[in-house]
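Board notes, transcribed. Complex of a protein with S-adenosylmethionine.
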Amino acid sequence: MDGRQYAPATQRNREPILEILLRVLPPEGNILEIASGTGEHAAFFAPHIAPRCWIPSDPDPQLRESIAAWQNYFQLTNLHSPLDIDAAESRWAIEDKEIKIQALVNINMIHIAPWSTCLGLIAGANRLLPSGGILYLYGPFKQGGKHTAPSNLTFDQFLRSQNSQWGVRDLDEVVAVAKSNNLELQETFAMPANNLSVVFQHQ
Ligand SMILES: C[S@@+](CC[C@H](N)C(=O)[O-])C[C@H]1O[C@@H](n2cnc3c(N)ncnc32)[C@H](O)[C@@H]1O
């Protein structure tokens, strides 16, 4: 009743994601999360990634309420209040503030949004990240144009039936867009349930 929303997948994937984040995030500074959803990841990661600060965001006002409710529940000192950021826009709310970010994290968004949102995300990473800054993506990906598991094909078909602009993205295409935005693929990690962690470094 306090506004906290729950997405069951976050309980399953938060520990493996945290393990990778702790390996790849810069040792200090601000981490901007795009598409924070319910805010459960933000509330779980924040205490583990201190002294870094976690800045959640989502364009959906009801989800921003949930993120704020999780923040209120745990009273985390290194969890910022949620920002209203639509990744597809050419300028983000954080660019009006005096906040420097060292890394950008995006979990389970680019396949549940039009391709233009992925393009906007990567363009934003190019605008905001310093040299050496990290862009971290998590989700299902095709590789070499092919699905890596039958479950990802089924999921892709389901997504496209919901919205013809959605769908599991091809890692090669994402890497090519990133490269043209000064983001070099650094590493990929196989994750549970046929997902990938994909780590880029800003040049
Ligand atoms: C499947 S949810 C994932 C949420 C969260 N990252 C998680 O893993 O639980 C997809 C999220 O993408 C957000 N989203 C959709 N379009 C977006 C956009 N253009 N810019 C930023 N976020 C967007 C939605 O509001 C939603 O929170």
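The chain has six helices and eight strands. The helical segments are 8-24, 40-49, 61-74, 115-128, 150-162, 171-179.
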